[in-house]
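Recall from the previous chapter that SMILES is a line notation for molecules. Here it describes NAP.
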Amino acid sequence: MTLAAPPQPQAGQRIRGSRPKPSGSCVFVIFGITGDLSARLLFPALYNLAHNGFLPEEFAVAGFALGDMNEDQLRDSLAKDLREVIGADCDTAIVDRLVKRLRFVPSDFDSPSGWQQLHQILEEFDKTYHTGGNYLYYLATAPQFFYPVVKRLAEEHLFDEANGQWRRVIIEKPFGTDLQTAHDLNSQLLTAVRESQIYRIDHYLGKETVQNIMVFRFSNGIFEPIWNRRYIDHVQITVAESLGVERRGRYYDKTGALRDMIPNHLVQLLAVTAMEPPSSFSATAVQNEQVKVLESVPPIDPEDCVWCAVRGQYTSGTVGTEPVIGYREEPFVDPHSKTETYVALKLAVDNWRWAGVPIYLRTGKRMRKRYTEIVIQFRNPPLTLFRRSGASMPSANRLVIAIQPQERISLEFESKIPGPIVEAETVNMNFDYRDYFEVEPRTGYETLLYDAMIGDRSLFKRADMIEAGWSIIQPVLDAWGEDHGGPLYEYPAGSDGPEAADQLIHHQHRAWRASS
Ligand SMILES: NC(=O)c1ccc[n+]([C@@H]2O[C@H](COP(=O)([O-])OP(=O)(O)OC[C@H]3O[C@@H](n4cnc5c(N)ncnc54)[C@H](OP(=O)(O)O)[C@@H]3O)[C@@H](O)[C@H]2O)c1
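With both inputs in hand, we obtain:
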């Protein structure tokens, strides 16, 4: 493990594309350390960062959670989970080192003695591991604790930055449940901490392929000139999950697919796909452009919700070869639930570049397969040049940016089928990450944790971005809340969603790209 003393990058100074250095010294404080997120994603991300030499020597972890474990039990439990998640290649020296530098506050967030203990631990770390009074807090807690914990941190002076120290807080999703609650939460947080100290996370932005969209668009001469209404017919963004609600029935039944996925993940993919080139890759310049494009999405007219927003709920079916139960039979779900597990939307971006180009979003649970992709569908060629030789109208070119499970970019174009007749078939030109780069195992959180440690906010969301995301879906939430705006369609688990979603796009003589 390389934990050698690094030249420390300055806040916001990392140039993407240059080789990153280990982050500066700090304590990583996880509120909710005994939870699922911490074991399944945060600790594996820390492991991967350490494994690749991105964590400095001067690093330690503090955890705060109710928990019925003591410190040793928590260490054992996290080490065991880490070994399971990382698998056979797990380097036990890294695991041992991470858990050895872990201290635990087993306490309610309300308890004064818990906060006293946290102060002591932070002071000890600063002395023992030279963590320099730099603290990165991670709120891996249910949303009702976001503001109380931030407020308490402020009251305890744990956001005070003196003598070059930094203090930052990463806030998980869900960020609000609608536009008003997101706005209220932003306002509350800003009474306790400065915006520049808040890192609102969306782990989709930690994915290499998502970051690569900006590089792909703005570092290549050939795509940007055709990335507009003159050449692009429409855009499709799909996030399909084959899993059901698992153990999250209680949360999900109150939330639904629209709230759970659209204002954060899908809207974020829309923003990177449709934004204008930023004046630089500084956080402010990138975020300004993303907010600008999101604010150009006109709210769906409530009258149009019936046909611009389709909702569905899965019934029992078969995913792959596995028979699965319907949503209403899932644990902790109301047997009469009207919560949507699928949503498809037709949106627009009213600006010079995108006027008249529909943007279709869809996401669902218990779909035929798990995949996330962005499809840029180009316009048809202006005429069928080979029609006299019997050739049919060629298919329009398509650029597919696959985000998961494969990380790939492919361009579909027409090619002549060998032989005496002029006949064309769609072929693919593929760029697969694995063919060119050594793809390290990743959780998607590595880049984001690292960026938060070096003070680079470009992959995090500003308050106005969060609110712009909610503004886009608020009319649909209102329409569905009042139970007008189209029926809740059923779809069998293991299918591609309700037929009504096909109608949404067919209506305009288009079709969803079939999952391969
Ligand atoms: N899990 C994921 O895959 C995932 C993905 C994306 C976002 N998120 C978000 O991340 C956050 C955490 O999710 P999670 O799945 O890790 O939740 P979780 O498993 O329920 O963990 C919640 C944590 O908070 C602690 N806690 C609860 N009430 C407390 C209190 N009053 N005082 C002190 N500690 C308290 C729990 O301690 P006990 O264990 O003792 O109860 C536990 O450590 C949520 O906002 C979620 O939406 C999760």
